[in-house]
Every structure is written in C-alpha cells, then in structure tokens.
Design a protein that fits this description.
Blueprint: H1 15-23, H2 27-30, E1 40-41, E2 45-49, H3 61-78, H4 104-107, H5 114-122, E3 134-142, E4 146-153, E5 159-169, H6 174-199, E6 204-213, E7 219-227, E8 232-239
Parallel strand pairs: 5-6
Antiparallel strand pairs: 1-2, 2-3, 3-4, 4-5, 6-7, 7-8
Length: 243
C-alpha cells in the first residue's frame, strides 16, 4: 500500500486540509461544503448521510481466502505458476470495546472503483441504488501504488455530481503528477459550473455529471441527462493525462 509519509499525508489534519495541499488549492472555495455540524469523520473520509450510520466492514478469513484463490488463478494464467509472490496482511481487529471508523469503501462501495462509476454514469437511474443514503462525500483510497480521491455531491434533487481520480502514483514523473492534479482541479471546477447550469435549466428532469478515469486511465467526462419528456441522453469526452 502507498506509504502516507511518501505523499506527505498528515494524520493530524482533516481530509479537506490534506487534499487541499495535495491539489494546491483551497477545496473549501472550490467545492460546495455542507455545514460542518452535519458531517461525519471516518477513516480518510468525511461525509453527510441520512439513516443508520455506516460501519467498517473488514474482510473475514473466508473472504480473504476466496480473494487470494481468484487472484492466484489469474496470476498463474497471466504470469506463470511460481513466477510471482503474493503478500497480503489481514487488517488488525480493533481493541476490545472500540470500533474502527468507516472508510470510503464502507460508505460508498458502489462507487469506489472506476468501472462502478462509469456504469453508474451511463445508467438510466438517478441514484446508484434504492437504499442510497450518502448526500455528500470527500475521501481518499490508498491502493498498492496509487492514491485516489473521490468527491460526490448528491444533495440537489435534480443534479448529481461525482468527481474522482488519481492524485498520486509512486511511478509518476513530476510532470505526470502535476498533470493528474491539474485534471482533478479542472474537473471540480467544471462540475460546479455544469451543476449550476443544469439546476436552472427547466427543460431537463435531472442530470448526472461524472468525471472519472476509464480502464485505460484516460479521464472521462460523462454527462447523462433526462429531459422533461423522459428521454435519456448521454455525452462523453475524455482528457488525456499525457497530451
């Protein structure tokens, strides 16, 4: 997993403060923040929600075993049996009487990964599922070599916004890292602009604005709009990380 010290992530500071420093902007000015009293702090995530609170869901021994069996089979086919090593460390359980805070993957499992975000963006449904309870979220996911940011604002009944992307990779050159962050900041600004435009457009019933990488790592802008007659229209464009 990415070493948080390598990217200068300060555990004493909030997600908003850390991401502002990573992106070189003041996120409080770039995105519409809810009242702080309504926000819940998790593990590298802050969110606003309705209904029962979210709990951390660490994998069981059986879950890990099944995952490792699937991964081993895939690696055997792709690389060759015995030509690789897999290391996996089970999460440590919390001390007795204490419960670990929920992570982004516990709060929005539907939209943590790029393929789920693209699928949602292209769907005819305004929300990812019937039991959706997250109105606003800002969080990060530290992966094996990358760190991703996810921002969503679902508070408006008419326009839903989701912006996601990688802001750090241990394999980045300085130029590529700066480009990644530039794309994220640009996507946040564009999302805010489009949201205001669609909010005031009487010809549409609702709109979904999704900015996220695709399988090839190109950043896609996917806008799905339902007009007042119930017709659905999806437009897509992409931004290259290495233009």
């Amino acid at each position: 997993m990415v070493d948080i010290e390598d990217i200068g992530w300060d555990l004493e500071k909030s997600v908003v403060e850390n991401l502002s420093r990573q992106l070189g902007v003041d996120l409080r000015e770039l995105i519409d923040m809810p009242d702080e009293e309504s926000l819940v702090e998790g593990d590298r995530v802050v969110f606003q929600h309705r209904g029962a609170r979210f709990k951390r869901k660490d994998p069981s021994t059986e879950d890990v075993k099944g995952f490792l069996e699937e991964l081993t089979a895939a690696m055997d086919e792709a690389v060759g049996e015995g030509e690789y090593e897999i290391e996996f460390e089970m999460p440590s359980p919390p001390p007795p009487g204490k419960e670990y805070a929920a992570r982004m993957i516990d709060v929005i499992p539907d939209l943590t990964w790029w393929d789920e975000r693209v699928k949602y963006a292209r769907s005819s449904d305004l929300l990812p599922n019937e039991d959706w309870r997250v109105d606003w979220l800002l969080g990060v996911l530290f992966k094996s070599s990358d760190a991703d940011m996810v921002f969503l604002d679902f508070r408006d009944p008419k326009v839903k916004v989701l912006v996601a992307g990688c802001f750090y990779s241990m394999y980045d050159t300085d130029e590529l890292q700066a480009r990644r962050r530039e794309i994220l900041v640009s996507s946040l600004r564009r999302a805010k602009e489009l949201k205001r435009r669609y909010q005031s457009d009487p010809s549409i019933k609702w709109a979904k604005l999704v900015f996220t990488p695709d399988q090839e790592g190109n950043h896609k802008t996917i806008v799905t709009v339902m007009d007042s007659d119930g017709r659905l229209r999806t437009t897509e464009s992409r931004t290259l990380e290495n233009p």
